[in-house]
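Slide 14.
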Amino acid sequence: MVGLGIAANANAGVYADAFAKSDKGAIATMRDKQDDVAARCTLGAIYAKKNDLSRASLYLTGCSDTELPEEISATVARASRDVTKRLQESELSRIVISIKPESATLTAQITAIPGERFAVPATIWVKGGTYELEATDGRLTYKQTVTVATFSRTSALIDAEAKHTLKEPKTGKADFREENAIESHQQGSPKAVKRDSLMSKKYRGIAEAPAPGTQLEDPLDPLTLRRAPRPPRDLWLGLRIGGGMFDDGASDARIGGAVGATARYAIAPRYFLSGRFDWSRRGGGSVDVLGASAGAGATVIDGSIGVALIAQLRADLRFGADEMMDVNTVGASAAANLELTLPSTPITAGIRFEQGLTEILPGARDRALLLEVGVDWR
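Slide 15: predicted structure.
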């Protein structure tokens, strides 16, 4: 019993380690153990981490109903919820693959997901296009072409009931006795041949079932009516305009404005690098400040409204002077942003705080609190 407990913990460690690495070696290790449900579900979580939603949904199917090792169960559950949500917001399309009879046991592959074999019936998510679907029971192979539009759904039926009878040759005796038999003649009128009407079934009120894979979309289906936003790009570019309070500790706080250009570059599903270049008017209209900021951020909420936190280091170059400031002062500061984004629109709103790290004058450090709105190309 102790040996079994140690083996179970070792396996759980393998799954958690594979997910942590998520490299080619980890994927190959999990693929070699696909008969193990925990390995298959771990592989689905790895593909979700890599943003490969088609493969992630394929391997995560049924994982939520399966008891998994403790070290990987929470990770797989979180990945299943995340993939389900992201699929609904993506441009991927559904292909529902069914078989006839339902008791048949087939495995299939489709050119939309190269190298992947899966049991049918199944529902798979792919990009819009035309693909070759192939299924086999180990003896016979069934092929068909499936076409699906972007952000749509279609179905494909694999009919395994088709008759495929192989007749073995039989030994017998040749009988030539009928060669010289008198040919019998047909007497009376020939039998009537029943011919179908030349009028189309459509105009005779006869409904025809569509061929598998050619069904039209239901215009009342929620998936047909809804149009989800395109998945975000890795690179975001944006413009910001804002206003707020500026204070240096040496004079009264004052109101000012700022205009900036921003950029984000995704390095992981929820993490990104961030840059900013801006101009602001401070000091009662007499001080212009050019600033360049660089840092990183994370999306803490990714839903109907996205919420991101950003931390940056900033370099300032000041032009102009008031009663207490010299011209062309160079300074450094730290900045923090809280930004709200609407995924279906380009609009962004946020709060930005800047704290000076260097002194403008002895005992005086610049601070700013800005409310900003802007637009993003994302």
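Speaker note: Residues 2-88 form one domain.
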